[in-house]
Recover the amino acids of this structure.
């Protein structure tokens, strides 16, 4: 089989939705097909597809596939069933706002076309999913350009978790500037936290950057301080799962620790993400729901032998919130927002 190149791919001729199963990377690059609601829910929940924008894109295609399977000729019954599926899909992961955003956009599209014949309605849903994916490509490109404008030749940058092409569509957000720099022959030195407990940095970021020709060095999360102290880091670039109205930002667990270290060492700390990740309805970080995950991810997953006693208690939050006071700027496809964030983010939404 030819190696898959796109993390989320809808084959219109075959009417089939495929994702690269990210839990198998970097060992295996394998596509899996998503056909049922259960497979879709599990794919998001179990991180076969993950990263805030990618989850949104995937959910949009999932709703299209599910809509195709709704047989009723009754428009109200169709809508009700689609809403039920949407609600279930939305329950798969709570923190990344892109999931509920994409689901809302798809439901609004279904409502806007409710009077039309079934095939026209389905085509509108398909086109909307394609549009969400295409727009993400454009947004990532713009974010990458803005992000790169903050760096200079030879800079060292530390990143946490995976916010590259696998987590988005192309380029990525926080990792996009590194890939763009490599394309242009600009030299950067990237430090990728392995990102405990799920190791997205080791399994995905270092894999994507290495393949993209970026000088990447993998470190354990508890090594961030020493590389900063050594003077090897001129900026931190991280992605985001939800940015509250005041700029507080949820991202993969451990991000807030990186921000605190960066402040200590006087290193600028940048959050990069599309405006679909900004949730102006959420006043601050206290209101961002934090996903708690299965303790087995800490105790056994990714290890050949268990790393802890089976009966030991575990606390496994997937995300933490970085206080807005620790963030130097938020980089979006519409531009770079600096403090005060409440005013800056609100102005951005108006644009
Ligand atoms: O649990 P994950 O792997 O979905 O968490 C991902 C992150 O925290 C990313 O940094 C974030 O979603 C931004 S992806 C462009």
């Amino acid at each position: 089989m030819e190696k898959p190149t796109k993390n989320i791919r809808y084959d219109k001729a075959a009417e089939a939705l495929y994702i690269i199963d990210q839990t198998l990377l970097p060992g295996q690059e394998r596509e899996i097909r998503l056909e049922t609601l259960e497979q879709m829910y599990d794919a998001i929940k179990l991180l076969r597809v993950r990263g805030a924008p990618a989850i949104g894109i995937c959910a949009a295609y999932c709703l299209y596939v599910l809509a195709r399977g709704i047989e009723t000729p009754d428009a109200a019954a169709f809508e009700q069933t689609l809403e039920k599926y949407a609600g279930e899909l939305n329950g798969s992961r709570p923190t990344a706002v892109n999931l509920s955003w994409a689901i809302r956009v798809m439901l609004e599209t279904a409502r806007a076309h409710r009077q039309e014949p079934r095939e026209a309605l389905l085509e509108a849903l398909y086109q909307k999913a394609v549009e969400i994916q295409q727009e993400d490509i454009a947004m990532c490109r713009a974010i990458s350009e803005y992000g790169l404008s903050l760096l200079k030749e030879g800079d060292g940058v530390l990143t946490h978790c995976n916010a590259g092409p696998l987590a988005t569509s192309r380029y990525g957000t926080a990792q996009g500037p590194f890939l763009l720099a490599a394309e242009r022959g600009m030299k950067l030195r990237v430090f990728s936290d392995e990102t405990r407990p799920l190791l997205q940095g080791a399994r995905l970021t270092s894999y994507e950057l290495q393949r993209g020709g970026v000088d990447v060095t993998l470190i354990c999360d508890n090594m961030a301080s020493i590389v900063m102290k050594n003077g090897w880091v001129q900026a931190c670039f991280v992605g985001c799962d939800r940015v509250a109205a005041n700029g507080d930002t949820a991202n993969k667990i451990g991000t807030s620790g990186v921000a605190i270290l960066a402040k200590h060492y006087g290193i600028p700390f940048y959050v990069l993400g599309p405006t679909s990740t900004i949730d102006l309805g959420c006043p601050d970080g206290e209101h961002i729901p934090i996903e708690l995950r299965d303790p087995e991810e800490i105790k056994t997953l990714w290890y050949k032998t268990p790393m802890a006693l089976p009966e030991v208690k575990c606390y496994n939050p997937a995300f933490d919130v970085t206080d807005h006071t620790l963030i130097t700027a938020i980089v979006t496809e519409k531009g770079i927002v600096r403090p005060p964030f409440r005013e800056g983010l609100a102005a951005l939404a108006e644009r």
Q: What stands out?
A: Residues 47, 50-53, 96, 161, 163, 167-168, 172-173, 200, 239-241, 251-252, 318 surround MRU (CB under 6 Å). DSSP finds eleven helices and 14 strands in the chain. The CA atoms of residues 95 and 288 lie 7 Å apart. The radius of gyration is 20 Å.
